[in-house]
Amino acid sequence: MLDSHQHFWKVERGDYGWLTPEIGSICRDFMPEDLTREIRRAGVTRTILVQAAETEAETDFLLDIADKTDFVAGVVGWIDMEAADFKARLTRYRQHPKFVGIRPMLQGLADDAYILRPKVIDSLKAIADAGLPFDILTFTRHLPHVIAALKQVPDLRAVVDHISKPEIAKSTLDPWRTHIEEIAGFQTVCCKVSGMVTEAKPDWALEDFRPYVDHVARCFGPERLMFGSDWPVCTLAGRYSDVANLARTLLSAHFGPEQLRWIFKDNAARFYGV
User: Fold this and answer.
1) Which pLDDT score, from 0 to 100, does residue 155 have?
2) For the chain, where are the alpha helices, taking DSSP H only?
3) Phi first, then psi: what are they for 60, rounded to 5°?
């Protein structure tokens, strides 16, 4: 299995603006030795390590970890998408064999329409021209802007992280459901079945997630879905094994063993080129 979405961080680095004591038990260091046992138990042999800070210093930190950690297959990093020399920075990072994608933290930005800024659109076009994957980190309110950006850059190879974090705790489906269906109409866009447990009630049950997984299964099909743990963020609401079993159980209602292998391994490997 290939986990398409996990994180590492060292709090003392000081560039995780969102990581404060108020967030709870994950406000501490998480490094490869903390994850090794969890992935072994779940049958995961490789992971995609995703940025958690809006600095290139953190991208360098993650690439250094990847160089030293066999199970890290690739790193999705951060580059300032409004930088005048974005293309040069992109070219530099692409020289690293484990740099496999870019993610701005859209969900936390003050401007919900950030992705439509002219400089950002230009950077998206450069990413598309390079054939590099782009991770979309959003809430439902951001999706209309994402759709507008995809219309301007229709050949962008992108993936929606965490099924775009619908309001699972409130059992709210719309307008998330309509927006996801429209985004799935872009054939170069995939979706990560990840990050769901932290959007649910603390006493969540498997059935809370079924309408959401059913919908992305119908919209994206087995060729454009990929499993991600969102570890260690997921530990706020469940164990690594809980997250893996949740995804496997709900997706098994739609797909057979071969298609599940695509979702839990092959699709992410192909998408990220690992």
Assistant:
1) 97
2) 32-42, 56-68, 86-94, 118-130, 143-152, 176-184, 210-220, 240-252, 257-261, 267-272
3) -65, -40
Report the C-alpha gap between 232 and 31 in whole angstroms: 10
The mean pLDDT of 60-86, rounded to a whole number, is 98
Q: Which two tokens stand for residue 202?
A: 């603390």
- The reported pLDDT for the residue numbered 206 is 97
| Length reported for the chain | 274
Q: State which amino acid sits at residue 127.
A: I
**Domain 2-272: CATH class, spelled out:** alpha beta
- CB-side exposure of 252: number of CA atoms within 13 Å? 7
Query: Which stretch of DSSP H or E encloses residue 148?
Result: helix 143-152
256-271, pLDDT tens digit by residue? 999 999 999 999 999 9
Could you tell me which of 115, 66, 150, 69 has the C-alpha nearest to residue 77? 66
252 band by pLDDT with thresholds 50, 70 and 90: very high
Residue pair 42/241 in contact (Cβ under 8 Å)? The answer is yes
C-alpha to C-alpha distance for 117 and 134, rounded to whole angstroms: 16
